[in-house]
Amino acid sequence: MKPALVFDWNGTLLDDAQALLQTTNTILERFGRPTIDLDTFRDHCDVPLSILFRNVGMSEAEVAAVDHDGGAIFHDTYEPLADKAELRVGARTMLELARQEAASSIIVSNHIVTPLVAQLRRLGIDRYFNDVLAFESRLTQYKTMSKGERLRRYMEENDLKPESTFIIGDMPVETNIARSLGLISISITGGFVSEARLRAAKPDHIIHNYHELLPIVQARGFF
């Protein structure tokens, strides 16, 4: 049986922590709030991002203003910054190996499909993925099916076995999804949350770059 590799996108494959930090600080400055550093960002980042904004001191009215019009303030700031972000170290090599081994590679993201696919094409990695599971538009982001439910249904429809499915993410939410669905959880540091928060979620494995992923997959009897 071939494995399935389920990747989060932001912070996991795309190295965009600085882009999201800069976006957050632009929004904080717009409302007259003090900016934050990367460590503070990683201590407080959560999804939906309205939680992050509340965690760093924004009022409910300010958070509602950011959410207005499909989060235009956020997306119009973030997307040009994301256009300059690169892949995480070793990600391209791992994706190429997965394709050579005929493994399934899937993205499950809280981002929006169209800009996400545009980033895959910009980076030249769209051919590596069987499917991209994400929100349909800005207006539906965080308002329809959760990542976990989206993945659960996809696994049922495509007969993916939990015991041969790895989920790789940079936040505790992916570990929680793995625990709920019986998957193998791998947390990667250097994304949107601190290593301490990742460890507290108790994933099956923690890696610091994608060169460390291959031995884990091999130890499970694949590749």
Automatic annotation (TrEMBL):
Pfam families in alphabetical order: HAD_2
Gene Ontology terms, MF aspect: phosphoglycolate phosphatase activity
GO cellular component terms given for this protein: cytosol
InterPro entries with a match to the protein in the record: HAD-like_hydrolase_sf, HAD-like_sf, HAD_2, HAD_sf, PGP-like_dom2
Signal peptide limits: none
UniProt GO BP: DNA repair
PANTHER family: GMP_IMP NUCLEOTIDASE YRFG, PHOSPHOGLYCOLATE PHOSPHATASE
Protein name: Phosphoglycolate phosphatase
Taxonomic placement: Bacteria, Pseudomonadati, Pseudomonadota, Alphaproteobacteria, Hyphomicrobiales
